[in-house]
Amino acid sequence: MTPATVVELGRVAIEVTLLISMPIFLAALVTGLVVSIFQAATQINEMTLTFVPKLVAMFLTLVLAGPWMLTVITDYMRRLYESIPGLIG
């Protein structure tokens, strides 16, 4: 295994990780922004008001995007396992 191969495997692993985590992070970001604007407008500073909507949005995103995320990680793992003979020999 050459250093270029190791770097390529690492790069693809990071890309897949970012691709899979992006929907959940975006849901939390958008929800946090909306709740922050609401808190600034109403001057309500309750910690559960920021936590619970983010948790619900992340759960809904996981339910909706979960099958796609599972497909992406399964395809990556299948490609990785299939490339093992080429990486060794």
Descriptive account of the structure:
It is a single chain. By secondary structure, this protein is mainly α. The protein has one domain (3-88). It has 3 helices and no strands. The protein has helices spanning 3-42, 47-82, 84-88. The longest helix has 40 residues, at 3-42. The chain is elongated and about 65 Å long. The chain starts with a helix and ends with a helix. The mean pLDDT is 92.
Number of domains: 1
Distance between the termini: 8 Å
Unreliable segments (pLDDT under 50, ≥5 consecutive)? none
Number of helices: 3
Q: Could you say which structural class the secondary elements and strand pairing correspond to?
A: mainly alpha
- Mean pLDDT, as a whole number? 92
Shape by Cα distribution: elongated
DSSP strand tally: 0
The major sheet is characterized as: none
Amount of beta strand: under 5%
Compressed to H and E, one letter per element, the order equals HHH
The value of Rg in angstroms is 19 Å
Helix content: over 70%
Strands, helices and their partners?
Elements lengths: L2 H40 L4 H36 L1 H5 L1
Helix pairs in contact: 1-2
Which short descriptors sum up this protein?
3 helices; 89 residues
Summarize this, please?
The chain has 89 residues and is mainly alpha-helical. The chain has helices spanning 3-42, 47-82, 84-88. It has one domain (3-88).
